[in-house]
Please model this.
Amino acid sequence: MKSKHGSFVLSEAALAELDLLPVWRWRGGDAATEAAAQQQESAAAGVASPAPSGEAIHSRAAAVPESADFRSEVVQMGWPQLKACVKDCARCVLHQKRKQSVFGVGDEKANWLFVGEAPGADEDAQGEPFVGQAGKLLDNMLKTIDLKRGEDVYIANVVKCRPPGNRNPEPDEARACEPYLTRQIQLIQPKLIVALGKVAAVNLLARDVPVASLRNKVHEYQGIPLIVMYHPAYLLRSLPDKAKAWEDLLFARRTMTALQAKN
Ligand code: URA
Ligand code: SF4
Model:
């Protein structure tokens, strides 16, 4: 179900969790008014990068043997087939040490899609994205803009299996896994994609630049508006950037309000 998000319900606990009290307190007021004031700014930000050309990020790694038409099979899949395929997938080395693959979770018709990097130990054990410490922060970040896991929100990762030792996924692993995320996006048809951190941004935008230069702009992934914000795990390590997370959350909310006003 698509929700309307008429107002902010900011929880003090959530703000405390983000270390945003007392300075970064939402001063009340109506989200729509805020959106109207900011809409021009969002529009001016426009589309900051072209949609990735399919081939730029879809090229195959020689290390991943596969049937040539794997991608064309995946684009035909509905949810049940896609889930089954990811469950048994062995298209990259990450399948070797995983306990289980982590498909994604949430409202399959969500307006909001949050994309992280890869499962960590907790996610590998539980089979759900963002259930560890970073997940707790993500849930609190969602709460500050009146969102809740599973309610108009879908959460997925660039790769579905845990990289050993929580290293970043290698480019060939991200490429091998990419048809699954692409298909999830096609099935969900979110209004807005939020890339959490550098790995998600690099893979969805096919641009290897710092998160700092990508945030606060509306980009695009295959025609769908996309914004970039710091990864919750990074925010847990970097206290000063938590304030920027708050700015990012407000920007996300404003962008969604503007998108919903369009249709
Ligand atoms: N970090 C991620 O990027 N994804 C998860 O699922 C958990 C932590
Ligand atoms: Fe398959 Fe993706 Fe897991 Fe690699 S990370 S084995 S491509 S599901």
